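Consider the following input, taken from an annotated entry for Outer membrane lipoprotein Blc (Aquitalea magnusonii).
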Amino acid sequence: MKRYSLSLILLLASTLLLAACSTLPPPGIQPVSGFELTRYSGQWHEIARLDNRFERGLSQVSATYSLNADGSIKVVNRGYDQASASWKEAQGRALFNGDSHVASLKVSFFGPFYGGYHVVALDPDYQWAMVAGNDRDYLWILARDKQLPQTVTQQLLRQAASLGFDTASLIWVKQSTASQ
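Applying the prediction step yields:
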């Protein structure tokens, strides 16, 4: 009986762990369809984000996406850490959760552990994007340029709020070029 109980506990724990590592979009959030990776590839500047431990304190944050030979996506995140006066860089790998024309991906920077990456708003000319994680604690506003027109920013804030994100907690990323 003890063996059965231990097996059941391990199965339940594994299920809970996998559920916690979901790479699906949060409930009620639909990733962009008609997505074109070739147009999305290249460098994006982080305009705003919800605070997260792996970017805490970084400014001049950018993300660069390119196609790997195996069909996965190379992700290079880079930001300047004022406290250490140095650049921090993380390289990762992204895979589509399904259809490559739906902007729902999973990204890993740490081995087999993946997080959700879901483009929920995208400029028709691929000049700005809004990206959600696998829950409403992760949100990024990205742009090809280091700043966005105020009208676009306000539009994205309204959309993010309507999707249930805490827009009052967004961190507006400094994109000065003084330390580059």
